[in-house]
Amino acid sequence: MAFPRRPSAALRYVIPAFLFAFCFWLLASPSDLTSGVSSIASPWRSKQSPGKHPIDRLIEAAEKDFAEKLSKTSRTLSEAAARYRERRGRHPPPGFDRWYQFAREKDALIVEDFWDQIYHDIEPFWALKPARIRKDAWDFEMRISIRDGKASSGSDWFWTTIWLDLIGTIEHMLPDMDLALNAMDEPRLVVPWEDINGYMKKAAKTRRMADAKSVVSEFEKLAAPGQGLDQHEKTPEKQWEGEKHYWLIARRGCAPSSPARKAAVITDFDTTPLIKSSFALKHMRDGFVANYTLSTDFCHQPDQQGLEGIFVEPLSVSATKVLFPMFGGSKLAVNNEILLPAPMYWKEEERFMGSEGADIPWSDKEDMAIWRGVATGGHNREHTWRAFQRHRFVAMNNATQLALAENGTSAPPNFGLPPKEYRLAARRHSRLADWVGSWSSVALTDLMCDYEDHEPNQCNYTSPYFSVVPGMPMAEQFHYKYLPDIDGNSFSGRYLGFLRSTSLPVKATLWREWHDSRLIAWKHFVPMDTRFGDWYGIMEYFLGDQMSGIPAHDEAAERIALAGKEWAARVLRKEDMQVYVLRLLLEYARVSDDRRESMGWVGDLLKGET
Ligand SMILES: *[C@@H]1O[C@H](CO)[C@@H](O)[C@H](O)[C@H]1NC(C)=O
Ligand SMILES: *[C@@H]1O[C@H](CO)[C@@H](O)[C@H](O)[C@H]1NC(C)=O
Ligand SMILES: *[C@@H]1O[C@H](CO)[C@@H](O)[C@H](O)[C@H]1NC(C)=O
Ligand SMILES: *[C@@H]1O[C@H](CO)[C@@H](O)[C@H](O)[C@H]1NC(C)=O
Predict the structure, then answer these.
(1) Is the Cβ–Cβ distance between 177 and 225 less than 8 Å?
(2) Which atom, in ligand 3's list, is nearest to the CA of 453?
(3) What is the DSSP letter of 27?
(4) What does the alpha-carbon distance between residue 125 and residue 201 come to, in Å, rounded to a whole number?
(5) Which of 10, 224, 594, 608 is 20 to 30 A distant from 245 in Cα terms?
C-alpha cells in the first residue's frame, strides 16, 4: 500500500469513504435516508430514531452490553466452574475451589469474562514445552519465585518489590513457580504473528476436557531455581534487539495481510503528520469509537506509526521475537507479555490516584476539560516531536494555534482541523478557537527537551508552540468535569484515579491493561480515537454550544462519570487485583506443569460419586 505524505492540512482528513459514509447521519434528511444509497451508509440509517446523536446510540448499546455482562454473574462454585468450562474449553485449574472461596471472601463480582485477558495472554504457552517455560522463567534476571507458599525475589527494583508485595498477600494459595518480570516501561516481547498463529493452533489442540475421574488436581513441586532437572533444558536463545524505531519491531506482531505490515514505513517525522481517519473506520461508527478493544489495535491503522511516540522512539527498547513467560504491567495489542496489574495501581500512589477530591459533587465542578502532563511518549527530538501524541493533543486544545489554522495564517504544526463531517457548529462559524478556548485547559508541564543547554522550561524546537505551566495535583483537577487521558511513555497511570473520581475520563490509548475486559466504553468512561479527531465532537455532545443552540448532555456525562466511579469501587479494588492475580497464577502454574493436559479442578463433577 502506498503511503503518500500529504502536506496540505486542509486535505488531510478528506478521505472519500469516510466522508461519504459519514454524510448520511450528518447531512441526510429523513427522505435521503430512504433513497437508494450504497450499503456503506446502512449502519447510519436508524429508522427508529433518526434524530438521535450517534453518542446516544453508543451509550444505549453500552448499557445493554453491561446488563448482559452482569446477568452472567456466577453465584455458586459449580456455576462458576460451568461457566469456566463453557468459555475456556478446559477444566478450571487445580485450586479453583480455593480461588472461588477467596473471591467470595473478598466480595468480588464473579463474571467469567472479567478474566478474558488472562486467557488471551496464557493461551500461546500451551504450545510450548512446560520445561521450557519453567527454565525460561527462573533463568531471567528479574524474577519472583514461589516455593512452599512463600514468595521471594532477589531484586529490590521498586516495581519488583510492589509486585512481590501483591503476590505476598496470596502466596499461601500458590503452587511453586517462577515469574520473569519486565521492569521497563516498554513491553519487550513481539513474537511474529506467524509464530503466534502457529502456537495458537497447537494450543487449540490441547483444549479438551479430560475425564473427571482421571484428572490430576495437585501441582508439581519444583526444585529451587536453577536446580533440578530443568537446568538441563535447552531453551531458544533470545536476541535482544535495540532498534529504536519500534514500529519496525511492533508491526511484526500484525498479520502479514494487515495494513500495518503492508504500509510503507515512514522515516521522516519532520512535517505535519498524516492523519487518516479512514484507518479508524473499522473501530468507529458515525465518527465515534464503537469498538474500543479494536481501537487499541494498530494493525489496521498504519498511520499510527507517525502518531505515537512509542513507534517513533521509545525511551528504551530491548525486544525479542522469542516467546517466553514474561510478566508486565501493560502492553500493546501485539505484545506477548502476561499482564499483572501495574505496580502503581497496587501501591495507590497519591500522585496517580489522587483520592483527595475524588468525591466533589458533579454540580460543583467546572464545565471544562483539564489536562496537565509532561511531554513524554518517548524521546522527542527536534525532527520528530510532531509525531508525539501528547504534543498533538495539547496543540489541538490551543486556541491560538486553532485560530491561526482557522483563519489561514498558518497550517497546524502537528495536527489537522477537525474533519468537516463532524459538522461542529463552532467550526462552521469559524469560531472553533474561541469555542475550544472557552472550555479547555490543556498544557504541558515539562517539554522534555532533547538538548541539555536550554533555559528552564524552554526548548528551542517546541517552545514556539507550547508554553510550560506548573503541574496541578489530581485533587485540583477533580474540580473539572472532563478529564482527557493521554498515553505517556506507555499506559497512563492516572486512569484508575480518574475512574475512581466523580469526573469523567475521556480515554485515548493503544495500551492494554489487566482490567480491560471489566470496563465498558460509553458506560464507565468515554473512549476517544488516538488521532483525537473526535475530541471536539465528544465535547460538543456533552457541553453543547450555546451560541449555536446545540444542546448539552450534562446528565449523560454525569451518569457515565458516576457509573465509572461506582464500577471502579466494585471491580477495580485492590481485592479485585488479588483475585485476578490468584486466578492468573493458577493458570500459569498449570501451563508450566508437565501434566497440564490432565490437570484441573473437577470437584463439582465428582460430587455425588463414591
Ligand atoms: C470488536 O472487534 C473485535 C476484533 O475485530 C471483534 O472480535 C469484536 O466482535 C468486535 N466487537 C463488537 C462489539 O463489534
Ligand atoms: C488569525 O488569528 C491569529 C490568532 O488569533 C491572529 O493573531 C491573526 O491576526 C489572525 N489573522 C487574520 C488574518 O485574521
Ligand atoms: C537547538 O539547539 C541545538 C543545540 O544547541 C542545536 O543543535 C539546534 O540546531 C537548535 N535548533 C533550533 C531549531 O534552533
Ligand atoms: C499555544 O500556542 C502558541 C502559539 O503557537 C504558543 O505561543 C503558546 O505557548 C501555546 N500555549 C500553550 C499553553 O501551550
Answers:
(1) no
(2) 5
(3) T
(4) 11
(5) 10
pLDDT at 2: 37
Determine the 3-state secondary structure of 477 from DSSP. Answer: helix
554-571 and 54-70 helices cross at what angle (nearest 10)? 20
Distance between Cα 534 and ligand 4 center (Å): 22
Phi, psi of 512 (to 5 degrees): -105, 145
- Which ligand ends up closest to the CA of 270? 3
pLDDT digits (tens, 9 = 90+) for 402-450: 999 999 999 999 999 998 889 999 999 999 999 999 999 999 999 999 9
> What average pLDDT does this structure show over 336-356?
85
Cα(70) to centroid(ligand 1), Å:
19
The residue among 347 and 577 whose pLDDT is bigger is: 577
The Å distance, Cα 292 to ligand 1 centre, comes to 9
Beta-strand runs (E) in 335-375: 338-339, 366-374
Q: Residue ranges per domain, the chain?
A: 350-571
Q: What is the CATH number of domain 350-571?
A: 3.40.50
Cβ–Cβ < 8 Å for 247, 303: no
Handedness of CA 316, 529, 574, 170 (dihedral sign): negative
H/E element, 288:
strand 288-289
Question: Can you say whether the dihedral through the CA atoms of 600, 604, 609, 610 is positive or negative?
Answer: positive
Q: Which residues contact 208 (CB under 8 A, 6 or more apart)?
A: 89, 90, 597
Nearest CA residue ID for atom 6, ligand 1: 294
399 Cα nearest atom in ligand 4 = 1
CA of 464 to the centre of ligand 1 (A): 42
Element (H, E) at 371: strand 366-374
365: DSSP letter: S
Q: Which residue ranges have their beta carbon within 6 Å of ligand 1? A: 291, 293-294
Identify the nearest ligand to the CA of 454 by its number.
3
**E strand map for 376-534:** 440-446, 480-486, 504-508, 511-512, 526-527
Check whether 378 has a pLDDT greater than 60.
Answer: yes
Task: Report how far apart the first and last C-alpha atoms of the chain are (Å, whole number).
Answer: 65
Residue nearest to atom 14 of ligand 1 (CA): 291
pLDDT tens digits for range 96-129: 999 999 999 999 999 999 999 999 999 999 999 9
Q: Give how far Cα 378 sits from Cα of 106, 310, 494, Å.
A: 39, 6, 18
| Distance from C-alpha of 558 to C-alpha of 539, rounded to nearest angstrom | 13
Q: From atom 12 of ligand 1, which residue's Cα is the shortest distance away?
A: 291
Q: How far apart are CA 185 and CA 242, in angstroms?
A: 14
How long a stretch of residues is the chain? 610
440 lines ligand 4 (CB under 6 A): no
Contact 332, 323 (CB under 8 A): no
**Pocket lining: 410 vs ligand 3, CB cutoff 6 Å:** no
The residue type of 562 is: L
The alpha carbon of 293 and the centre of ligand 1 are apart by a number of angstroms equal to 7
Mean pLDDT, residues 522-538 taken together = 98
Question: Which atom of ligand 4 lies at the shortest distance from residue 467's CA?
Answer: 9
User: Ligand 4: distance of its center to the CA of 158 in Å?
Assistant: 37
Question: Which helix (H) or strand (E) segment is 151 a member of?
Answer: strand 150-153
Give the three-state DSSP class for 144. strand
